Amino acid sequence: MNIILFGPPGAGKGTQSDNLVRDLNLYKISTGDLLREEVKKKSVLGVKIKSILDQGLLVSDDIINDLIENILSNKNYFNRSIFDGYPRNFNQVKHLDILIKKYNQKIYCVLNLKVNQDVIIKRIIGRQVCPKCGLTFNEFFNPSTKENHHCDVKFLQKRSDDNEKTAKNRLETYTKETLPVLDYYKNQKILYEIDGTGHIPEIYKEIREIIHSLET
Ligand SMILES: [Zn+2]
């Protein structure tokens, strides 16, 4: 079952896709991971990608599409991919369609995690990481306490780009680029809207119910 997981930055896509990977034996496709893996392999493409990233430039859709094709053409992953953060624009949607047909697969559903803007901003700007133990917290929603965290709070760090201005910019770009993508899948009747504001286990339960309804 190929699944596309959609949602703005800070909507909890990573957690939910990890749950699905574990329970449905799926293979997670995140373009960020694919790019990092290719760079690590030091392949011809990897060297090219590294120089693009080192210059702070965006990797072109063509390169992303090639990396996606490597996965979809691999029989080990046949019809069991979960796309996290891809396709992110209409160009990528069209290419994914071509690849899916070429390798005789199917997109079963597109799950859109919806979270209102104020909540997302707080999720992004409140994010804290403890470099000592690796746990992550959120000062608004999931603060570090004596019960859930044993290190001193003075160790907690924020990412420098997790401020309100960049958070708003990232959201705006996301909305502008992804609306046509969502419309496209809506017209195909495979788009499912999910309220991503609640607790992670409840959201996951809803996701599982949708998938279950597609299996029967
Ligand atoms: Zn810690």
Q: How would you sum up this structure, described in words?
A:
50% of the residues lie in helices and 15% in strands. The protein is built from 8 helices and 7 strands. The strands form 2 sheets. A 5-stranded parallel beta sheet has the order 2-3-1-4-7, sandwiched between helices. The mean pLDDT is 91. The protein binds zinc ion.
How many whole angstroms does the radius of gyration measure? 18 Å
Instruction: Give the proportion of residues in helices.
Output: 40-55%
Compute the number of helices.
Answer: 8
Q: Order of strands across the widest beta sheet?
A: 2-3-1-4-7
Bound molecules: zinc ion
Taking the sheet with the most strands, its summary is: 5 strands, parallel
Q: What's the overall geometry?
A: globular
Instruction: Report, as a whole number of angstroms, the end-to-end distance.
Output: 13 Å
Low-confidence segments, ≥5 residues, pLDDT <50? none
Derived from helix and strand composition plus strand pairing, the structural class reads alpha/beta
The tally of beta strands, per DSSP, is 7
Which percent band covers the strand fraction? Answer: 5-15%
Features:
216 residues; alpha/beta; 50% helix; binds zinc ion
Short characterization:
50% of the residues lie in helices and 15% in strands.
SSE layout and pairing:
Blueprint: E1 2-6, H1 13-24, E2 27-30, H2 31-41, H3 44-54, H4 61-72, E3 81-84, H5 90-102, E4 107-114, H6 117-125, E5 127-129, E6 136-138, H7 164-187, E7 191-195, H8 200-215
Parallel strand pairs: 1-3, 1-4, 2-3, 4-7
Antiparallel strand pairs: 5-6
Helix pairs in contact: 1-8, 2-3, 4-5, 6-7
Bound molecules: zinc ion.
Zinc ion (ZN) binds next to loops.
